[in-house]
């Protein structure tokens, strides 16, 4: 019987394991000539935030508030770490709406998502 835990990362976390796992899940080529202790390349950072936004959109389509909250929070956190302030602000709006603290109508959510994607593109391109 298989454990299906091939992608579990254990402490201490080794960067090369992280890179390999992210490459498998995000379908990215491995970084060329990159030392294991260097930060993730920009294309990987963007891919992580893009993946969170896509998951948020899937949750929104299902009206899955728990996952809307989860993925908007993750996108906000990643944006803050990467100093993408506009991205973080827009992800925060989505998070506050998912928590019920901000009243966003469906059209407002779609406009915020569109603005979020533009802000991501501006920051990473």
TrEMBL record:
Q: Which GO terms describe its molecular function?
A: protein kinase activity
- Record-annotated membrane-spanning stretches: none
Show the InterPro entries listed in the entry: HPT_dom_sf, Sig_transdc_His_kin_Hpt_dom
Q: Does the keyword Transport apply?
A: no
**Protein name, please?**
HPt domain-containing protein
What residue stretches are annotated with the HPt domain?
51-113
Query: What UniProt keywords are attached to this protein's entry?
Result: Two-component regulatory system
Q: Name one GO biological process term.
A: phosphorelay signal transduction system
